[in-house]
Every structure is written in structure tokens, then in C-alpha cells.
Design goal:
4-stranded antiparallel beta sheet; 10-stranded mixed beta sheet; 3 helices; globular; mainly beta
């Protein structure tokens, strides 16, 4: 138990202001073999792998063929996911963290974050609310999904009912995505129109490219993808919090991610 608490504290201290994603050891797994994936926190697809620590997550599941099973393990296990899926087909791995808090000691870091994630209106709203430029707190949580093909990989992604979520509208392992990988962004179950989706692309040689696109009126976006590359799609929602007491968080960010690869 003490080890789990220490791991939770370490995780919280390094997770803020970085991407969070599920990184499969293999994106296409033969039938009958286990799914193995790390939980990573970092930047431009470089980040530390974190262990299986139940106090750190609210949901950790495999969804496949209409069945949902909880990911099991022992505290400290790495990789965090190492278990057999229900069967063959497309497996959607879901991981939702608990809430974490951070304190901003530099105004520039907050404004840069808002600009990067495309909610600059938050900066004006912060000022209009009469909030200080330093010493204020933000709550954040991660809402991650990964698509892993098992056996023939047939099937489709699902809307898992996350607070903020990116849903794949095509199967990158069985469908023709040469014209783009369609996704749809949801917040509280509603499609999100005209919002930014950031795409991290890792080639076979390890090089990483980062691009952004926007959703249409139905919350859909078409991601440019290439065979043999791995992808992390990311979207962040920032919403106001009304503090009940001095020192309570005044903002909450919710991070959605979707990882997958495109076969050669």
C-alpha cells in the first residue's frame, strides 16, 4: 500500500501540462495473446511509462465486441496493461484518471497553455473574473483511449461515455484510411463543433511531426495519416470552476486522447 501511495504522488507531480496517452507495445496482436500497453506522460510522444496504480484512475477497461472488462493487475505492475482481451477484433482500451491539481506560479505558462490548446478566450475570462495571475489552481484529468487490433482486428470504436472523448469513425486496421482517418469529438455526450484537434505522428524512424486541425459543425475531423506510422490525437476542454473556499481550483481542464497506428 505504501508503494502505491508513493507511486501516486510521483505520478501527480509529473503529469501536469503534458500529453497523456496509452502506448501499446504492439498495435496488432495475434489472437490469443495478451494486450500490453504503457501509460505515458510526456511531450511529442516521448514520456515516462507509469505503473498500474489503482488510486490514480477511475476507469481502466477493455471494450470489445459489446463487452467491457476491467483491466486487472497488481499495484506497481509495468506495463500498466498486461492481460488478455475478451476475444478477437478491435479492442478499445479506456483509461480515465482521477482529478489532479496544479498551482500556476507563472502567468506566462498559463497563457502559453491556453494559446497552445486553442482557448485564448480563457485568458480574457480569467482577467474578467478578477483572478490573480499567479498562485491560482487548476484541476485536471485525462480521458484516454487506444485502438488495438486483435486477430483480424474487425470492429469499430465505441463512444465510451467519457466526459470528453475522441471517437474513431473508421477502423485504421481494416478500413481504407488513405483519404484520412475520420474522428468525432464529444464533450458531455455532445459533438463539439469548431474545436482544435492536435495530432502527433511518429514515423518508423522515430521522428515526430505535430499538426492541428479543426472539427466541422458535427464535431468531425479528418486526420491525415500514413501507413507504418503511430498517432496520438489530442483535444483539451477548459471550463470554469467556482471556488467554494480560498485556494480552491478556479479552472478545470479535461484532456482527451486517442492512440492508434496505421499498418503498412
Amino acid at each position: 500500500m505504501r508503494a502505491a501511495v508513493l507511486l501516486a504522488m510521483l505520478w501527480a507531480g509529473t503529469a501536469s501540462a503534458h500529453e497523456f496517452w496509452i502506448d501499446a507495445e504492439a498495435w496488432q496482436v495475434p489472437a490469443g495473446e495478451a494486450l500490453r500497453a504503457d501509460i505515458r506522460v510526456g511531450e511529442t510522444l516521448e514520456g515516462a511509462a507509469y505503473s498500474y496504480v489503482p488510486p490514480n484512475f477511475r476507469r481502466f477497461e477493455i471494450v470489445q465486441g459489446g463487452e467491457t472488462i476491467a483491466v486487472s493487475g497488481r499495484p506497481g505492475d509495468r506495463p500498466a496493461l498486461n492481460m488478455a482481451p475478451p476475444g478477437d477484433g478491435l479492442a478499445t482500451v479506456v483509461h480515465v484518471t482521477k482529478d489532479y491539481n496544479l498551482t500556476y506560479s507563472e502567468w506566462e505558462k498559463f497563457t502559453a497553455f491556453c494559446a497552445h490548446k486553442d482557448f485564448v478566450e480563457v485568458i480574457d475570462r480569467h482577467t474578467a473574473r478578477g483572478l490573480p495571475q499567479t498562485g491560482f489552481r487548476e484541476t485536471y484529468s485525462r480521458h484516454a483511449k487506444a485502438l488495438i487490433a486483435v486477430g483480424d482486428g474487425a470492429g469499430q470504436d465505441v463512444n465510451a461515455g467519457l466526459e470528453v472523448e475522441i471517437v474513431a469513425l473508421a477502423n485504421p486496421y481494416t478500413d481504407d484510411v488513405s483519404g484520412g482517418m475520420p474522428v468525432q469529438v464529444f464533450y458531455q455526450g455532445a459533438p463539439q463543433a469548431d474545436v482544435q484537434v492536435e495530432l502527433f505522428e511518429r514515423a518508423a524512424d522515430g521522428s515526430v511531426a505535430v499538426t492541428t486541425t479543426r472539427t466541422d459543425a458535427e464535431g468531425r475531423a479528418l486526420l491525415v495519416v500514413r501507413p507504418g506510422h503511430m498517432y496520438l490525437a489530442d483535444h483539451v476542454v477548459m471550463r470554469e470552476l467556482q471556488p467554494a473556499a480560498e485556494g480552491d481550483p478556479v479552472w478545470e481542464s479535461l484532456w482527451a486522447s486517442l492512440t492508434f497506428s496505421v499498418p503498412e
